[in-house]
Design goal:
alpha/beta, single chain, globular, about 45% helix
Amino acid sequence: MPLTDFITETQQQRIVEAIGVAERCTSGEIRVHIEPKCKSADPVKRAVKVFDALRMYQTRERNAVLIYLAYESRKFAIIGDCGINNRVPEGFWDEECDILLKSLKDGNAAEGICRVIARIGKNLAEYFPWTPDDINEQSDEISYSE
């Protein structure tokens, strides 16, 4: 299935815009990576590989978050860098995963991704508030692989 059957170009642009809006309230960085098939039985393991390949660990506060989706495999993961994981409570991503799962099952992938991005930005602001010297350390563009 082509990517545009999963999310249209207009929806992809909405996701990029949602990342920009969410990052206005936090120094945290949010990225979305999409690919057709998960190259691992465990989407979290694949997300970690993508996180490393994108060099998402290269943020000042180690506060990057990756939303990983493999649309044909019907797998996803949300992971954060060590700066986040050392500060947030156990199960921090559970509610976002539940929201995304429901949206994916309902066929509303883009809406669910945007909603989760907004929630992640709000939650990150509690631990990593935006500061006037904040710079965008990671691209807001969606990354893709085959």
